UniProtKB/TrEMBL annotation:
PROSITE patterns: ABC_TM1. Keywords: Cell membrane, Membrane, Transmembrane, Transmembrane helix, Transport. Residues 16-26 have a biased composition (Low complexity). It comes from the Bacteria. Belongs to the binding-protein-dependent transport system permease family. Residues 1-26 are annotated as: Disordered. SUPFAM superfamilies: MetI-like. It is a multi-pass membrane protein. It is found in: Cell membrane. This is ABC transporter permease. The chain crosses the membrane at residues 91-114, 126-144, 150-169, 213-234, 246-267. The lineage of its organism: Bacteria, Bacillati, Actinomycetota, Actinomycetes, Mycobacteriales.
Length: 281
């Protein structure tokens, strides 16, 4: 055990509680301050928005309090939950299918050269197509119903997932693979115990990007003709010059994006607890 010097007598102190306090000061305080520090930037942004709306941003920009009032009106009428449910269902279906496709392509291309030769070229070419350019084509193919919106959301997350899974698998240290092979691990054991766990950090990066892109694509999809959804709510507010509702929808998109990112960060903390990388100070 490392002995601690008493600050008065400069003599070694063998008290375990005192040593623990010296080595790790106020762990409970650090846990308490963590969420506060993480949300400090958002709180500051809202304060600046509130002050700016009352001074230099002009009357066309509603204050956060006005946005909350508009949201409360929609909550009381039940209209907001209807739009949230429709948008949430589209995103959930689209992201589930799109992320699944990206994972399959990424794992196949990462593990097998022949798979990379087959899928990498087409995916890289499709990745360069902007989402807005796909809108008229998808409307022709799928119509203007939910199928068109879900199909557009499916395409968006495939590319970040594919690229990050491929990079994560190919970034696994070759020496670890050779050591595992020398221990007699078969192909399945090598993949599940060495390669995929080693690629997890990069896969989670791709997952965070894919979820963000999914919400952005929802905005594009729902700005087209739709009878229900957050995009419809924004278009309807634009027609009646309800800037408070427009900003409300923007805030909802931002909050939903933050929540999905938080879920991924929780999963990272759970599955990457073994990682000892630098975490800042």
């Amino acid at each position: 055990m490392t002995l601690q010097l008493d600050p008065i007598t400069s003599a070694p102190s063998s008290d375990p509680a005192e040593a623990a306090t010296t080595e790790n000061p106020a762990p409970f305080t650090r846990k308490l301050l963590g969420p506060a520090r993480a949300s400090s930037g958002l709180i500051l942004a809202v304060l600046i928005w509130q002050l700016g709306a009352r001074s230099w941003l002009g009357t066309t920009t509603p204050a956060p309090t006005e946005v909350l009032e508009a949201g409360w009106e929609l909550v009381r009428s039940g209209e907001l939950w209807q739009h949230l449910a429709a948008s949430g269902r589209r995103v959930a279906v689209g992201l589930t299918i799109g992320i699944g496709i990206g994972l399959v392509f990424g794992v196949a291309a990462g593990l097998f050269r022949i798979a990379e030769d087959l899928v990498n070229g087409p995916l890289q070419a499709l990745r360069m197509l902007p989402t807005l350019a796909l809108v008229p084509v998808f409307i022709i193919w799928f119509g203007i119903g939910d199928s068109f919106k879900i199909a557009l959301i499916i395409v968006a997350p495939i590319f970040p997932i594919y690229l990050n899974v491929l990079a994560g698998i190919r970034g696994v240290d070759r020496r670890l693979v050779e050591a595992a092979e020398s221990l007699g691990l078969n192909r399945f054991e090598l993949t599940t115990k060495i390669i995929l766990p080693g690629a997890l950090p990069q896969i989670f990066v791709g997952l965070r990007q894919a979820l963000g892109i999914g919400w952005l694509t929802l905005v594009v999809a729902e700005m087209q003709t739709t009878p229900v959804g957050l995009g419809f709510l924004m278009n309807d507010a634009k027609e009646f010059l309800r800037t408070d509702q427009i900003f409300l929808v923007l805030v909802i998109y931002a909050v939903l994006g933050l929540l999905t990112d938080l879920v991924v960060r929780v999963l990272e903390h759970r599955f990457l607890s073994w990682r000892t990388g630098y975490e800042g100070k």
